[in-house]
Amino acid sequence: MTDAVEAGAAGGAWTPVGRGIDPEVCSRWRLTPGRVLGDRAAGTWEATRGGAACVVKYFGAAAFPDWRYPLRVAAALRAQGWPTPEPVEEPLAGPDGVWVLFHRLPGESVRPADADRPAEEHARGRLLAEFHEAAADTGIADQRGGFTGPAERVADPELEHWLRAHELACPAEGRMLRACRDAAVGWFADNPVPDAPRSVIHGDFAPWNLLFDDGRLTGVLDFEATHHTFQVADFALSWRGYQDGVLRGYDEVRALSDLEWHLVRPVFWAWLFIGVKDLLAAHYGAAGRTGAPPDLGWQITRLRKHSPLLASKAGRGGALGSW
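That's the Aminoglycoside phosphotransferase domain-containing protein sequence above. Prediction below.
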């Protein structure tokens, strides 16, 4: 799941990290539970069964109503030879969420030193372009439940309402976020049906979600944010507003059109608002609310990133940073 939607992950007596795998699940699947993997609110753990390494994931019903969709996308890519997580058993579904048991894929993620980051970004951009070709070939064109397109997301009047409420509480931060939303709405109003390639996307094509063994790709992990949209939306968490090597590598394999270069920024802005409406509504809409306003530092940090390459291709971002 992406950083931007972590706050929404939910549900059930045994959600999250900290409580571990439900003992009934361990008994049913004959598992020896291991350590938690990461700090995602969805819940991901190591486990073994009969000596075989596995991974257990929990999808809360509130945050992942269409949990079968990422499994379907991963299976369609696996059929084309991409190493994606494969379930060992049929998922265990309950009223509050779903448990899924996967084979653990071999290999390790690449954590490049600073000097090696440009090469890693470039290689990952090239790989993402190849991934998108395969994603388009899956033929999956329906939208995942709970997701919308970027234009619909930023045009949501409820999002605007709660951003204004947040601006009253946090003027500088709220003003920046609302300006971002307004700029994205304006771009899509001027370009209502962008003729740009669409397919299912991965959603978080970051180094930690790619496994390698001696330079060979052995795993593409974490399809929790996969949905159908513009392919350039996958830059949101691969390029992240500044990793220009990703864009350069991608463009070498599949040349981006002029329209796509101009589309990168508004879909990136729209991605920053995934989950934000519900987060703000839960705080500002609560009767007798107390406590600090929601932390939207993740969004603000990314709005302040600088991309010389995007600025050269699509102009600067005006009041929304120096892109």
